[in-house]
Specification:
519 residues, 5-stranded mixed β-sheet, two-stranded antiparallel sheet, 7 strands
Amino acid sequence: MKFMSRILRHLSMKTLALLSLGFTLLPMLAGLVSAFFAIEQLSLQSQHAVHHAAAEAKSSQELLDQLNDLERRGKYYLNKRDAASFSDFKLIHDQLTEYLQNQINSAKTSDSPLTIGLEALFIEEKTAFETIVARYPAKPTQAIANNTPSSNGASRPPQATPPDSDLFQSVKAKARDLSFGYAAHIEDESKTLAKLSYSAKQDLVIHIVTLVSISCIVLLVFIYLLHNPIRQIDFFIRTLGAGNFTQPIRVVGTADVEFLGERLEWLRTHLNDLEMAKQRFVRNVSHEIKTPLATIREGADLLSDEVVGELNREQKDIAEILLSNADKMDRMIAELINYSQVSARRTYQKLVLVDIRQMVLTLLDDYRLQLRNKSINVVNFVEPMEIMGDKEQLRTIFDNLLSNAVKYSPEGGEIRLSLKYEGGHMVLEIEDEGPGIDPDERQKVFEPFFQGRSSRTLGVKGTGFGLAIVAECVASHHGKVEVLESHEDHAGARIRVLIPIQSSTYRKSTEQTEGSKNT
């Protein structure tokens, strides 16, 4: 792996992509070349087999023609038995002998199984010729002349064909056997060619499958080499997006990808410095503001208690305004510190298995008195669920959303709360019957210090950090919070929180709850 990393450092993504294309196509090209030569070899074998079969068929036909000619000339000689017919008979015999001898030599050269049949025919034809010549030699010229017609037209009756002419039948029988041998040999060669063709197809398929498999393996390796650095970069970008600026970034890959990783590391260090500076600024400002604010509040308390003298109505009102705004500033500073701490805790989350259902029910019990004072009815549908997360941040999410719903709900109103598992996410929805959130404010409500028109209209006291803290806590769990359209029978705010969870954990919790119900 280290060796591969050292090689990749000297390459670019473009070069690696070209190499992946080349190494992927190389086995395929090798397969095409192998297939070409296999087909070419099979074509040559087919041509040779066809040529050889045609030659044997021609030889068989020529042999039968010469044997028929030999039989015809032989029978003519047996009828005439003169020198001319003998000469013709002997000429055909010599030609056939020479032809058979050439065929025998050719068969021996090619190790043909027809050699024995050719030799047997050669011997049979030679024996028949010698037997006929020995038993029925050619007649002298005078004897032949005696057989010519007389002057009065009378002639001797023709001599019958000797019975030895049946020798030609044995020769023809051998020739027919040889012809069958030729046909059988052609059929054997055809079968051999079919086997060779089938074997060539199998070898070709094996070669193609092997080479395609090699190409796929090479392609997968290069896909990994190309995709892995991108996956690393995506992971580190997501880590930065989640607010984790402490984890060093080191991307292993090609030269240009590692350079990009170095730029991301530079960005991380700068973001971390900015985050640390922001935290220091918030702490310092909060500390510097709290001291004079405490002095102002203490002075306002003294004025309100008339320690320094009796106050008239207007002076008392001014003192009350000072106390109210001092308390408001104190709460705002506390919320600002809390918001800053939530942002900073993205990196230092303490992940534990949290029973969400129990947490929601406990919070509802904590708000029981406030709900009773405003006669608010809570309709809840809470599924058993456990997720891995930061317990304090999850509690803050539910607490802030429920607190807003209680503050904005009218007397005798209703709050709907649902907690369920959907598509690999924990889905929490809280809906009240308050004035709701205007469409143009639905994205702004999650920003720090923002307070909507409804809070100013109803005179609800707030710092503008409640939903901003919710958004930070949800983001630290890689989730999403959004404002939805209200249901038809409600006109208030409807907020949904989605946090990814492990489905196995959810199933385990559900099965345990169902098992307890069954028992």
